[in-house]
Amino acid sequence: MNERHEHLIALAPERTVPNMKSSPQLLKTSLAALPAAGLALALVLGGCVHETRVARGQYLATAIACADCHTPKIKGPKGPEPDQTRWMAGHAEDVQLPPPPKLAASPWNVVEADVTAWAGLWGVSYSANLTPDINPGLGIWTEDMFIQAMRTGKHMGSGRDILPPMPWNYFANLTDDDLKAIFAYLRSLPPVSNRVPDPVPPGGAPGFE
Is 156 left (phi over 0), alpha (psi -120 to 50) or beta? Predict the structure, then answer.
């Protein structure tokens, strides 16, 4: 060791390690801080996992074009475009539609210009409100309800049939993790209070939940 190194060592402040045995209070304080530190770390990691899941859900919902059918449209400079203020809010409650054409046994189905209402041999169906509004959005839905709805084609997983053109039978092929991600994304959206009409059976009159 040369003289320069010896000089630097002499100038360096002396560092001491606390003696836990001689400092019981310090030991107690250190141990007491461990659960809080663990909780803080868990919250941070949990938040990261949730953000990742929401981002994955947004990617999937965009890829399968959920907003095309579940978002009302407004007139834009190049034609109809999604209404950003009612994103995923379903068929607009303030739109009064005339009766659909009588299709009888025709092989044709019809869709209104907003792409949120359809008529066919099943009657008339409207795109649902997928925002987390308590009623009538997904606010009261649980993650399991959503997964079961996509697996079984039943409203809330055990109710009435989910009608065409909702392609739930294709979404049933998604993994549980993918469906959980989509649900997390939908739950992250701003809630929109928009009461979508009930489905109409063949020959029936429009109604509301």
Answer: left
